[in-house]
Design goal:
6-phosphogluconate dehydrogenase C-terminal fold, 12 helices, homodimer, three-stranded mixed beta sheet, alpha/beta
Chain lengths: 309, 309
């Protein structure tokens, strides 16, 4: 087997993503040793029980020997966690994360990092609607993009550290993209944050329609609604923090969405079928592009229903 | 094998739903004979080639011997098709459809039906994002609801016809619900029409964000966006007709959605994390109800990604 990319990594937060990084790192040669920490002792205990790595006695103990420290906690909590333990990191080690927002997180990590620690914010575009150490799995990152947002103009040591972290994610099966943090936050506002916001909102709307009982909404959800409830079942703390930490880009994307919706409502009200038909035809083409890019299954209904006969 | 429910049925329109009814009817004892018609001769030829039934020489020929005629075409086209052939139907036969809107369709079917033909509008809550006779399959209706909207106060013959049509759908694996057409249109506006409208809209918004290339939207679509593109890939003609024929209920549901979105945007702008957290936590509960009701898979990511290890 190829030599693991890192000797020792520390995972701070062993939820869905942290536990998947731990599993994948061991299984695919990402790291020889995995040290775990979680502020919730029951979660940490469960992760140890699952054999995901060695539980540390404290957060500072977890990071002390690590060549790379992965903060796998909600983005609103990363700053404080990094501030509390980055001082205990080895010189030359990598300080990274897996958060869905990069601008604010990059700022917080840099503020926390001592001289000689390489701050390289990261974001694997992977996940499910489930949470916790039992929900993770080693193949979660296979074929998925991982975006790194290194700072511009680093020295040779820093660039080598970025290459090494990229190699780690590739070892886990990811394709790696380097991007400016601001651009990341804008792109993800559209491809991820706005869709989640809309999903949360429509679930709330459906629930609040007093004239229709919740029973009926649930009962007939296979008509389309159920698709939205999946992403609306994602971790509430994580998503609260995403919206609070990418406020501007999300509100900008939301404004455009609302403008488009106003135009669409007008077309329906005016009975303008051609506008609707053209828009719907165009949307079909985008779906096709996503399947061709290997970013979703071509199986009807995501392949979830009974099989074709 | 149990005796089929009908001797002969006619399927007008052999797309995803029509071809699935044809397949399921033959395979599961819905009908002994299936007669097919489609205004597109290539589609009709393909359906015959697939062995889905006997292609008719004309629409009136298709319905002449049928005990039940299923209009499986976009809701905006049902009125004209029924008007063109209902006069050729046998007395005592059932005139039904599979459209996603019931109020306007019920009105059109009743206007077209001669004395002695039983009009029973129907809507199987089943489908995929694909279209055409090759996309259909016999198990499409298994475990799915089928809503019938019979008229109130029919005579004994009519009630017997409704029971028979219900039996047909049950034979195909559906659970049958009877409902007033107006209520159907209101419930489906929330569980189906609004979600599709929102999905179409967000796909358009993502495409139009000039500052982000389409390449990036597609590339990073696994972060949430791809979920929306699936239902936005549904048949454009079908959906144009749904919005034009259920205008009032859709605009009512959309208004509520927009009000909720305004409140959500305000919470983000004000940094009110508690409002967000409570809303997101609530949404998770609705997802759970849908899974418990057997209306979606519990597998993470709809089970579409690589398997758990």
């Amino acid at each position: 087997m190829t030599k693991p990319v890192f000797d020792t990594i520390a995972i701070i937060g062993v939820g869905l993503i942290g536990s998947s990084v731990a599993r994948a790192a061991k299984e695919k040669g990402g790291a020889t040793n995995v040290v775990l920490w979680d502020q919730n002792s029951a979660t940490l205990g469960r992760a140890a029980e699952l054999g995901l790595g060695k539980p540390a006695a404290s957060m500072t103990a977890a990071v002390a020997d690590a060549d790379a420290v992965f903060h796998c906690i909600p983005v609103g909590a990363i700053g404080a966690a990094a501030a509390a333990c980055a001082g205990a990191m080895k010189p030359g080690a990598i300080l990274t994360d897996v958060g869905s927002v990069k601008g604010n997180v990059a700022r917080d990590l840099r503020a926390a990092a001592p001289q000689g620690v390489h701050v390289i914010p990261g974001h694997p575009i992977a996940g499910t609607e489930n949470s916790g150490p039992d929900a993770g799995f080693a193949s979660l990152f296979e074929g998925r993009w991982c975006i790194l947002t290194p700072e511009a103009g680093g020295d040779a040591d820093y660039l080598a550290a970025v290459d090494r972290l990229a190699e780690f994610w590739q070892r886990l099966g990811s394709r790696v993209e380097r991007m400016d943090a601001t651009r990341h936050d804008l792109v993800l506002a559209i491809t991820s944050h706005l869709p989640h916001l809309i999903a949360y909102n429509i679930v709330a709307t459906a629930h609040d329609m007093e004239s229709v009982t919740e029973g009926e909404v649930v009962k007939f959800s296979a008509a389309g609604f159920r698709d939205f409830t999946r992403i609306a079942a994602s971790d509430p703390t994580m998503w609260r923090d995403v919206f609070l930490n990418n406020r501007e880009a999300v509100i900008e994307a939301l404004g455009r969405f609302e403008d488009d919706l106003t135009a669409l409502r007008k077309a329906i009200r005016n009975g303008d079928g051609d506008i609707l038909f053209d828009l719907f035809t165009h949307a079909r083409g985008i779906r096709r592009s996503i399947i061709e890019a290997g970013q979703d299954t071509a199986a009807p209904n995501f392949g979830r229903d009974t099989k074709k006969t």
